[in-house]
Design brief:
This protein has about 450 residues and is of the alpha/beta class. It contains 19 helices and 16 strands. Strand 11 and strand 12 (about 275) form a beta hairpin.
């Protein structure tokens, strides 16, 4: 059964509102109504709505005022305004503030029906077109970075400026916000794009091996070094080197990294030959390095060497208008990958995705969509596919009784739940979660792999 589209009808004229309820109900819409703009705002805050049909002139809160506030709550909802007092100025003002369309009373019912039927599809196409125009305007070639929100437009404008330079760039932001994609966009739109783009996750390599990984080693430099190995700096010569999770780098290695950046040359572990390197460095972190400098866990001189230009990737909750684009992108990708005939979301499912706070950011959204596609039984993902999101992110301690750990529960289940809850309470920050759990970030990463949780 096809889910009915839910329309919120807002009009302080009881007779007109009742007529619209009857008419739209006969057309197959599910109707919610409100007698004022203030009541309409409360409805949108309390329940999913697919479309708003609203009068402009109302006693307490006008349709224009309600339009502005509803767009803050959920930018994806198309809003069609009605008025018996038409003017060019009013129409222009309504459209500038985000109205989908503007209808004159008495309503032309054929036009009304056509407007409502087209609204959701038009909004989706408009968003995709805006995204393509934004990429073309910025001259940035990065098909994996998706978003047309003001926050993403500002970010990509800065990427375009920075990419053509040789400056060291620090990409900051929460886990799952796409810092590696930003780093790749900088490289692939730079004069070094023909050179290699080499990536190193500093948190995934032990302290004893990190020096060899970055600078290389000579044969016999240590046990197991049975041949010479070139480090990542040499591999990235002429291109860009991306150091992810740079805040996890031990202080002893920070000194050696600083020297290489200053001298633009290195020596392999166990060797004496000085090797010049020509590398553009891009680093990323989800930690507050300035605070780490104050705490003495990150060198101040290295911090200023790395933080020539800082780019902050916005969390998904601050660019909710990008969620429909991102969700549709992941839907198509995973439907093709898993050979599933899934091609759309129901309006209520999309509303649910937009409302959820996404503590794990884009990575969590991607994993959620993939899971829904794999388990889908029809071509449309409805709200039942995302039932786990209805309760919101889990709270710390959920599943544990006040008297201690539950009896007869395998230890692995308790450990997995502790990790999930702690990550949620730390807003997806893996370094902070590891600190609260009393383990290293590397150990946390291993446990995330073990329990098939998002990395």
């Amino acid at each position: 059964m096809v889910e009915k589209c839910r329309v919120l009808v807002v009009d302080d004229d009881f007779a007109h509102r009742t007529m619209l309820r009857t008419l739209l109900g006969d057309w197959g819409y599910a109707i919610v109504d409100a007698d004022d703009g203030e009541a309409a705002i409360a409805v949108v805050q309390a329940q999913p709505v697919d479309l708003v049909l609203m009068d402009i002139r109302m006693v307490r809160v006008s349709g224009i005022e309600a339009l502005e506030q509803i767009k803050v709550i959920n930018p994806a909802i198309p809003i069609v305004l009605m008025t018996a007092y038409a003017s060019v100025e009013m129409a222009v003002d309504a459209l500038k503030k985000g109205a989908y369309d503007y209808l004159i009373k008495p309503l032309d019912f054929d036009k009304l029906r056509l407007t409502l039927d087209r609204a959701l599809e038009h909004i989706r196409l408009k968003a995709e077109n805006r995204h393509l125009k934004q990429l073309l305007a910025n001259g940035i070639q990065s098909p994996d970075i998706i978003g047309s929100s003001p926050a993403m437009v500002r970010l990509m404008e800065t990427v375009a400026q920075v990419a053509v330079s040789e400056a060291t760039v620090m990409v900051t932001g929460e886990s799952g916000t796409g810092k590696e994609l930003v780093a790749a966009a900088i490289h692939h739109n730079s004069p070094r794009k023909a050179g290699p783009f080499v990536k190193v996750n500093c948190a995934a390599i032990t302290e004893t091996l990190l020096e060899s990984e970055l600078f290389g080693h000579e044969k016999g430099a240590f046990t197991g070094a049975d041949r010479r190995k070139e480090g990542r700096f040499v591999q990235a010569d002429g291109g860009s080197l991306f150091l992810d999770e740079v805040g996890e780098m031990p202080v002893s290695m920070q000194v050696k990294l600083l020297r290489v950046l200053q001298e633009r040359e290195l020596t392999r572990v166990g060797g004496e030959q000085v090797i010049p390197v020509d590398v553009r460095l891009i680093v990323a972190t989800n930690q507050d390095l300035a605070r780490m400098v104050n705490a003495g866990t990150f060198r101040e001189d290295l911090y200023y060497r790395l933080n020539v230009v800082e780019l902050k990737t916005p969390p998904l909750r601050e660019r909710r208008e990008d969620i429909p684009l991102l969700a549709s992108h992941f839907l198509l990708r995973f439907a093709e990958k898993n050979r599933k005939a899934v091609d759309r979301f129901s309006p209520r499912a999309m509303d649910l995705l937009i409302r959820y706070p996404w503590p794990g950011n884009v990575r969590e959204l991607m994993n959620t969509i993939e899971r829904a596609v794999v388990l889908a039984r029809s071509s449309c993902l409805d709200e039942s596919a995302f039932a786990a999101l209805v309760q919101g992110p889990p709270e710390v301690g959920v599943g544990f009784s006040d008297g201690g750990f539950p009896a007869d529960v395998p230890l692995e289940h308790i450990e997995r739940e502790a990790i999930v809850n702690t990550l949620a309470s730390a807003n997806g920050n893996k370094s902070e979660a590891a600190r609260r759990l009393g383990i290293t970030r590397k150990t946390l990463r291993e446990k995330l792999k073990k329990y098939n949780l998002p990395l």
